[in-house]
Amino acid sequence: MKTILAKATENDTEVLVKASEFIKNGGLVAFPTETVYGLGGNGLNADAVKNIFKAKGRPMDNPLILHISSLSQLEELVKEVTPCAKTLIDNFWPGPMTLIFRKTDIVPTETSGGLNTVAVRFPENIIARKFIEMCNLPIAAPSANTSGRPSPTKAEHVFEDMNGKIEMILDGGECEIGLESTVIDVTGENPVICRPGGITLEQVQKLFPLACYDRHLIEENSQDFKPISPGMKYKHYAPKGDLTVLDGDFSKIKEFMLKNPDAGFITFDQYRITNSEKEFSLGNINSPLDCSHRLFDILRECDSMKLTKIYSMRPPADGVGFALCNRLFKAAGGKIITLD
Ligand code: TXA
Ligand code: MG
Question: What does pTM read for this prediction?
Answer without folding.
Answer: 0.96
